Amino acid sequence: MAGAKRLFKDESKFVMGEFWTAKQRQGHSLHHTVSYRASFKPELPSFFMNQYLKKKKSKVLDPFGGRGTTAVQANIEGHVAVHNDIHPLSIFLAQSRQIVPPLEDLDKKLKSLDLSGTYTEEEGDERLLAFYHPKTLAEIKKFKKYLKEDHSPEMQFLGLIALSRLHGHSTGFFSVYTFPQVSIPWEAQKKNNLKRNQEPEYREIKPRIFQKMKRDLAEPLPPFYHEFSKNNAYILSSANAMEKIESDSIDLIVTSPPFLDKVDYEGDNWLRHWFLDIPKNQERKLSVFSSHAEWNSFIAQTLKESSRVLKKGAHMVMEVGEVKKGKDILNLDEDVVRMAEGTGLLWSKTFIHTQQFTKLSNCWQVSNNEKGTNSNRCVVLQKR
């Protein structure tokens, strides 16, 4: 640990402050089309784009693309995005917003879909009927078929909206009362139904899709959005092996890796995977780590690959938190700096975003800068 103490001796490299608001839903409404666990606010990539990009039409990469926050924000600010992720769900969430059709075109497409008919039970429906009325489930299945066959921008965006309405805690969702961000196990949902004395009621999906879509598109996009988004790249690969991205081609990286074993992306999204026909893949669980040493090894590989794709002098921002392991608090930003040694990336500074958390954060038992992954610790590295 002696090396670690020497490495962090220079306190001038740590910058603390409230660099963006802690308020919810402050970015463009397009960001809030769909929720996704462990996503950062659009204000975070926006802050660093303004810090480190000197010109428009720069190329911005997120190796752990998630729901596409960095990609969407890059296009909003006049840059081209490269969205990389190992999860097919992530690729869909981002790519379905590459082209955002006008509301009138989307409404026309939605009205053209014939979702009528009777429900026919199929194998595996027991778990789905814990969430949906049979008639609602029949409509969702018919919508799924259209989505699979029609790859137009209109249908893909409608698919994103429908995915965002699959389950939640209000009548605006397709499901009976349940958790909105996480697909809980169907057995747990059956118990909840008994506890709440509820049964799935019929909820027509078309009007719910339209109302959500109308809200999400209420704020106009910048007129140049599609000028940049049309040149985006969406790549399905691990962050430590981004072979499809050319060396020395990226102007800025803004990303946030998985925080050890804090999020089960596979289990939390099982209903969304069913909706998009994404098969189970045990190898994708390699992006969730139970070992601190394993996490560090993966981060070192990712930093080396990020160095390869960055232009000389360009910056990488990796946002991490502090994680409680037993009685110890692990400041993962310190690990990132250590793992960067020998990769061609030089530690520039670390921004520690301090904030007062909102009621939503407190619902997740996140306290103010005390425990969990609750502080934004953004390590800035520069390619030599």
Layout: helices, strands, pairs:
Elements: H1 2-7, E1 14-17, H2 43-52, E2 59-62, H3 69-76, E3 80-85, H4 88-95, H5 103-112, H6 125-128, H7 134-149, H8 153-164, H9 186-195, H10 205-216, H11 225-229, E4 233-236, E5 250-255, H12 265-268, H13 270-276, H14 292-309, E6 310-320, E7 322-325, E8 328-331, H15 332-339, E9 345-353, H16 359-363, E10 376-383
Parallel strand pairs: 1-9, 2-3, 2-5, 3-4, 5-6
Antiparallel strand pairs: 6-10, 7-8, 9-10
Helix pairs in contact: 5-8, 5-10, 7-8
Task: Fill in the keyword field for this structure.
Rossmann fold, alpha/beta, globular, two-stranded antiparallel ribbon, single chain, N-methyltransferase activity, 384 residues, 10 strands, eight-stranded mixed sheet, 2 domains
Number of strands: 10
Question: How is the main sheet built?
Answer: 8 strands, mixed
Specify the helix fraction band.
Answer: 25-40%
N-to-C span: 26 Å
Radius of gyration: 21 Å
Name of the CATH homologous superfamily of the largest domain: Vaccinia Virus protein VP39
Could you tell me the CATH topology label of the largest domain: Rossmann fold
GO biological process, one term: methylation
Pfam families: N6_N4_Mtase (PF01555)
Domain DNA methylase N-4/N-6: 250-350
Family: Belongs to the N(4)/N(6)-methyltransferase family. N(4) subfamily.
